[in-house]
Amino acid sequence: MELREIQDILKANVWAGESRLDMEVHAACGCDLMSDVLAFAKEEVLLLTGLINPQVIRTAEMLDIKAIVFVRGKSPTEDMINMANQKKMVLLSTDQPLYVACGKLYGRGLMNKGDN
Amino acid sequence: MKLHYQVDGDNFLVAGEASASLKRTLKQLGIDSSIIRKISISMYEAEMNMVIHAYGGVIDVEISTDKVHILLKDKGPGIPDIDLAMKEGYSTASHEIRELGFGAGMGLPNMKRYSDHLNIYSEVGVGTTVEIIVFLM
Predict the structure, then answer these.
(1) What range does the domain containing A31 cover?
(2) Which of A40, A70, A103, B69 is the most buried (most CB within 10 A)?
(3) Most A CBs within 10 Å: which of B110, B111, B112, B134, as the mutation test of the A interface?
(4) Residue A84: CATH number of its domain
């Protein structure tokens, strides 16, 4: 699924990587615990999280995660946006809660587990 | 190839910078991405532990033809019971650390899960040394 489609489904704002919305993801992982993301997430998934701090970007970098959706109406900080731009990541945010955001993407065909 | 990193304590903005730097180096060396992933995750968890629990420390990395050897040394409070600390879910991290998405008691188990050899030497009041080895083939 293209990130542009994900942006549309979740009515998401784009905070970083607007020129990379044609990138595809095939799996997603919804999680607020970065240690669990490190333990279980597969490579190159979409990460959905309600956690806002620079370690989210760092954790994504360790796992080669290229796109993150912040849920529950939360926005990334300027530090996070700068880090994401340096690492060529896409940052999106949506007002949807984590459960609903994951459900909508799953229902539209993003069905591979990322794990978690 | 030998690399040396200094890790600041309590600076969460740059925490993980050493692991990110090593990851870039390993990519430049053309090492297989699944092996880089093992090294990155185990070192990142160890580096975060240094920042969270031990006021920072030093990391020495040696990359040879057959393995990556990582030695993380701190002068933190030490780990009183390593067997207990290895259990998934056991954590002594503060509420502030949990708000960062860490402190879930997965750090040491994750290091064990992703490394080929993990050795922890710790003395209460003196510090902790973590040795991580990941084979390249």
Answers:
(1) 3-113
(2) A70
(3) B110
(4) 3.40.1390.20
Amino acid letter, A52: I
| The residue to which tokens 């731009």 are assigned | A85
**Residue A90 contacts residue A116 (beta carbons within 8 Å):** no
B104–A56: do the CB atoms touch at under 8 Å?
no
Per the structure, how many domains does chain A have? 1
Confidence of residue B119 (pLDDT cuts 50, 70, 90): very high
Topology of the domain comprising B2-135: Heat Shock Protein 90 (3.30.565)
pLDDT tens for each residue of B41-81: 999 999 999 998 898 999 999 999 999 999 999 999 999 88
One-letter identity of residue B49: N
Mutating which of A40, A42, A52, A58 best tests the B interface, going by the most B Cβ atoms within 10 A? A58
Q: What SS3 class is residue A54?
A: helix
